[in-house]
C-alpha cells in the first residue's frame, strides 16, 4: 500500500502561508496513523516455519520442492512447504509442525506439507494435504488458543485446535476419494466440499458422503464392505499407537499430561469395540488386541493407567482378547545395523523385554568401519 501526499502549491497554498503549529499537528496525526497502520500490518504478518520428522518406522520417502527424486525420510529432517511424504506398507512417519502439534502418517499414505507459519500474535498454522491413506493428528488442548491446524483432503477439510483424530482417504473401485474422520478427543470441524460443515465430537465419525456424524461403532456397522470396516478399525489402532508414542516421548501433549489423552483415546476406542462386538465380534476383538499391543509396546510405565482403563471397560470376549494380548510374547524389535563405507546392512532380532519402560519406535545403529 502506498500514499500520495498532496502538493501544497497545487491547492493554491504557498509555503509562506502554512501555519507551523498546524503543520506539527498534521504531522503528528499522520505519524500516529502510520504507526497504527504498521501495527495492523504486523499483526497480520505470517512468518514461515518448517515441519520436521520426529521419527520414522519402516520404509518412507520424501520429494522436496525443486526436486523430482524421492529419497528416504530420516529422523530430524526438515520438511519445507511443498514436500511430499509417501509411506510403504508397514511404514509410518511422525511429523511435528509446532510444539504440541503432531501428525502421524500411516502405512501406504501420501501427504504434502501445506502452509506452516507463526503470526505476530503467536498463532501457529499448520496444514497437511492428505492425498491417500491415513493421518493421526494430536493437538495439545492447552495450546488451543494458538493452534490453527487442518488436514486438507480431496473431499473436504478437517480442522481442529486441541483435538486427537484420524483422517482417512480411501479410493473407491471407481477412483472416487472417500474421506472419513474419527474423533477420539475434542471436536473436529469437517467442511465437506459442496456440502455442510459437520461437527465431529469425541467418539464420533463422519465421512464425505454424509451430512452428519454418527458414533464410531455405527460408522463401522454402516460401512458397506469389509475393507471399509477395516479402514475405520485401522484408523482407531493408528490413533492409539501415535498417542501411546507421544505419551512416552512428548509428555506436554494432552494439556500437560499426555497420559490423560492416552486414557481418553483408549476409553473411546474400547467403548466402540464393545458396541461393534454385538454384530462383529471378530473385528471388535482385533481392535482391542491392537489397542493393548500398542499401549504395551510404546507407553512403558505409562501403560498401567491405560491398561486399567481397558480392563475396566472391555466386556465379554473383548476382555478375553485383552487378557490374551497381555499374556502373549511381546513382538521383538528389529535393529538395522549399517556398516559404512560399504553400506552393508544386517538385521538383528532383539527380544522385547516386557518390563522395559522405554521403547522407541525404531532403532538404527550405524557402525563406521575404520579406514582401510
Short description:
The chain is an alpha+beta fold and 372 residues long. The chain has helices at 20-44, 216-222, 226-249, 258-276, 281-299, 303-313, 316-327, and strands at 46-48, 51-57, 60-63, 71-72, 78-79, 84-87, 92-98, 101-105, 110-119, 124-139, 147-153, 156-160, 164-171, 177-185, 187-192, 197-201, 204-207, 214-215, 333-340, 344-350, 363-368.
Give the SSE map.
Blueprint: H1 20-44, E1 46-48, E2 51-57, E3 60-63, E4 71-72, E5 78-79, E6 84-87, E7 92-98, E8 101-105, E9 110-119, E10 124-139, E11 147-153, E12 156-160, E13 164-171, E14 177-185, E15 187-192, E16 197-201, E17 204-207, E18 214-215, H2 216-222, H3 226-249, H4 258-276, H5 281-299, H6 303-313, H7 316-327, E19 333-340, E20 344-350, E21 363-368
Parallel strand pairs: 10-11, 19-21
Antiparallel strand pairs: 1-9, 2-5, 2-7, 3-4, 3-6, 6-9, 7-8, 8-10, 9-10, 10-13, 11-12, 12-15, 13-14, 14-17, 15-16, 17-18, 19-20
Helix pairs in contact: 2-3, 2-4, 3-4, 3-5, 4-5, 4-6, 5-6, 5-7
Amino acid at each position: 500500500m502506498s500514499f500520495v501526499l498532496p502538493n501544497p502549491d497545487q491547492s493554491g497554498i504557498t509555503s509562506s502561508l502554512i501555519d507551523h503549529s498546524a503543520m506539527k499537528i498534521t504531522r503528528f496525526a499522520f505519524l500516529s496513523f502510520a504507526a497504527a497502520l504498521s501495527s495492523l500490518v504486523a499483526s497480520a504478518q505470517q512468518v514461515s516455519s518448517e515441519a520436521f520428522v520426529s521419527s520414522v518406522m519402516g520404509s518412507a520417502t520424501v520429494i522436496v520442492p525443486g526436486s523430482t527424486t524421492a529419497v528416504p525420510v530420516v529422523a530430524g529432517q526438515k520438511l519445507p512447504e511443498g514436500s511430499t511424504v509417501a509411506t510403504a506398507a508397514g511404514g509410518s512417519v511422525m511429523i511435528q509442525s509446532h510444539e504440541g502439534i503432531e501428525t502421524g502418517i500411516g502405512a501406504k499414505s501420501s501427504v504434502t506439507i501445506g502452509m506452516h507459519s507463526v503470526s505476530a500474535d503467536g498463532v501457529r498454522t499448520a496444514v497437511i494435504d492428505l492425498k491417500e491413506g491415513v493421518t493421526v493428528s494430536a493437538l495439545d488442548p492447552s495450546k488451543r488458543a494458538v493452534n490453527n491446524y487442518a488436514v486438507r483432503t480431496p473431499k473436504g477439510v478437517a480442522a481442529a485446535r486441541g483435538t486427537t483424530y484420524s483422517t482417512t482417504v480411501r479410493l473407491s473401485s471407481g477412483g472416487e476419494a472417500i474421506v472419513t474422520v474419527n474423533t477420539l478427543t475434542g471436536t473436529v470441524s469437517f467442511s465437506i466440499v459442496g456440502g455442510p460443515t459437520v461437527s465431529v465430537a469425541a467418539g464420533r465419525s463422519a465421512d464425505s458422503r454424509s451430512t452428519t456424524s454418527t458414533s464410531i461403532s455405527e460408522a463401522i456397522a454402516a460401512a458397506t464392505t469389509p475393507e471399509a470396516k477395516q479402514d475405520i478399525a485401522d484408523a482407531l489402532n493408528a490413533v492409539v499407537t501415535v498417542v501411546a508414542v507421544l505419551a512416552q516421548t512428548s509428555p506436554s501433549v494432552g494439556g500437560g499430561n499426555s497420559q490423560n489423552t492416552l486414557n481418553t483415546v483408549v476409553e473411546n476406542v474400547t467403548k466402540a469395540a464393545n458396541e461393534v462386538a454385538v454384530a462383529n465380534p471378530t473385528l471388535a476383538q482385533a481392535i482391542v488386541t491392537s489397542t493393548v499391543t500398542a499401549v504395551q509396546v510404546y507407553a512403558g510405565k505409562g501403560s498401567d493407567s491405560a491398561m486399567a482403563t481397558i480392563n475396566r471397560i472391555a466386556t465379554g470376549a473383548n476382555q478375553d482378547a485383552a487378557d490374551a494380548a497381555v499374556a502373549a510374547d511381546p513382538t521383538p524389535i528389529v535393529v538395522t545395523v549399517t556398516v559404512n563405507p560399504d553400506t552393508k546392512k544386517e538385521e538383528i532380532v532383539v527380544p522385547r523385554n516386557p518390563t522395559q519402560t522405554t521403547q522407541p519406535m525404531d532403532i538404527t545403529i550405524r557402525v563406521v568401519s575404520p579406514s582401510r
